[in-house]
TrEMBL record:
Residues 2-408 form the Ketosynthase family 3 (KS3) domain. Pathway: Lipid metabolism; fatty acid biosynthesis. It comes from the Bacteria. The keyword Glycoprotein does not apply. Coiled coil: none annotated. This is 3-oxoacyl-[acyl-carrier-protein] synthase 2. Involved in the type II fatty acid elongation cycle. Catalyzes the elongation of a wide range of acyl-ACP by the addition of two carbons from malonyl-ACP to an acyl acceptor. Can efficiently catalyze the conversion of palmitoleoyl-ACP (cis-hexadec-9-enoyl-ACP) to cis-vaccenoyl-ACP (cis-octadec-11-enoyl-ACP), an essential step in the thermal regulation of fatty acid composition. SUPFAM superfamilies: Thiolase-like. CDD domains: KAS_I_II (cd00834). Keywords: Acyltransferase, Fatty acid biosynthesis, Fatty acid metabolism, Lipid biosynthesis, Lipid metabolism, Transferase.
């Protein structure tokens, strides 16, 4: 069985909007979600900036017992509730076993791990919370979503670092396409802007130490010097076309391809041959049965690190050859920061609405051209343009590469 798969709902919690309408509007308006860290006292840190979620109160989303749920799970629940509402799907006795959840996180409950360990050191093992493990482990995002939504089908988690959100949606795509589920809620979530999380990335020299919010996350810019940590969640509703048409659902766009590959090179650095990223894009395009030159837009992984941006540029050139200079490329991490395990899901959502509404998002705050990064990075602001195919890339620590291909629904 091979079925067409469409996106019929979406939800998001992000540094530039806590619902899809605000988020998409802010993407179009090139809003910068980066600011000075407020979630912890970072006086001893070189890193001063992050892309935090603003004005998030779990009670406003009807989240019960928030103290028993880590922030990454709270984000996931809030996004899933919006996704369910926007889809118009009603989960009942007849369909709950054909409805699944694939929700991942790159790190999971890191702030919970940190706080409970501090409690252990100061007060002893008997003071460690009984909720510690259920709050911290990554699969709890998927578990809570299934409980909240009432799904009884597949319930699982992808964990592939910064490719997590993309792989979650890719896994869901295959489940629906191959007939194992009729509808799947899929995405990624992350909340690792805490003392330990920032310290860990800072010690790797992975983060930007800039104090200028407009020159910190600057993908493909020659002066880029590291990424800016972000947080949040995004959930997409993937549904068989037959199911969507039968219930007269609002179809945002179609998902037509998914590709994965491994660099098999280094735990944090991308392979300089750029073959990993090239093959994940190639496989997604081949699954869709189209030619590379039909792709109009790439939402690049574009982290604002020296190695990632030049290597991803090389991967695009290897696959698309002459067409590399005809397609539009941008990195919305310039607005949202790097949301780690959530980033692929958030950027997939961007692609869905770019196709649906007819725009190409910008790479904001770009100033200095890098000779190694010479593609059309859409730096002049949002382009109002109808596009047919949009590709979203995610390249994670461990050498994980993943790409999703979306198509304007016709």
């Amino acid at each position: 069985m091979s079925r067409r798969v469409v996106i019929t709902g979406a939800g998001v919690i992000s540094p530039i909007g806590n619902n899809v309408e605000d988020f998409v509007e802010n993407i179009i308006n090139c809003k910068n979600g980066i600011g000075f860290i407020s979630l912890f006292d970072n006086l001893q840190y070189k890193t001063k900036l992050a892309a935090e979620v603003k004005d998030f109160d779990p009670k406003n989303y009807g989240i019960e017992s928030p103290k028993k749920k880590d922030r990454f799970v709270q984000f996931a629940i809030a996004a899933s509730r919006e996704a369910l509402k926007s889809s118009g799907y009603i989960i009942d006795e007849d369909n709950k076993h054909r409805t699944g959840v694939v929700m991942g996180s790159g790190i999971g409950g890191l702030s919970t791990i940190q706080s409970e360990y501090e409690k252990y050191l100061s007060k002893g093992p008997k003071k460690v919370s009984s909720h510690f493990i259920p709050k911290a482990i990554i699969n709890m995002a998927a578990g809570h979503l299934s409980i909240e939504l009432g799904t009884r089908g597949v319930c699982t988690s992808s964990v592939t670092a910064c490719a997590t959100g993309t792989d979650s949606i890719g896994h869901a795509f295959r489940l629906v396409k191959d007939g194992y589920q009729d509808i799947v809620f899929a995405g990624g979530c992350e909340a690792s802007i805490c003392d330990l999380g920032v310290a860990g990335f800072e010690s790797m020299s992975a983060l930007s130490f800039s104090n200028d919010v407009d020159r910190a996350s600057i993908p493909f810019d020659k002066e880029r010097n590291g990424f800016v940590m972000g947080e949040g969640a995004a959930v997409l509703v993937l549904e068989s076309l037959e199911s969507a048409l039968n219930r007269d659902a609002n179809i945002i766009c179609e998902i037509v391809g998914y590709g994965q590959s491994s660099d098999a090179y280094h735990i944090t650095a991308p392979s300089p041959d750029a073959e990993g990223g090239m093959y994940s894009m190639k496989y997604a395009i081949e699954e869709a049965g189209i030619k590379p030159e039909e792709v109009d837009y790439i939402n690049a992984h574009g982290t604002s690190t020296q190695m990632n941006d030049s290597t991803e540029t090389s991967a695009i050139k290897k696959l698309f050859k002459e067409h590399s200079y005809n397609l539009a490329v941008s990195s919305t991490k310039s607005m949202t920061g790097h949301m780690l395990g959530a980033t692929g899901a958030v950027e997939a959502l961007v692609c869905c609405y770019a196709l649906n509404k007819g725009f190409i998002p910008s790479t904001i705050n770009y100033k200095e051209k890098d000779e190694e990064c010479d593609l059309d990075y859409v730096v002049e602001g949002t382009r109002n343009k109808c596009i047919k195919y949009a590709l979203s890339n995610s390249l994670g620590f461990g050498g994980h590469n993943a790409s999703l291909l979306f198509k304007k629904y016709e």
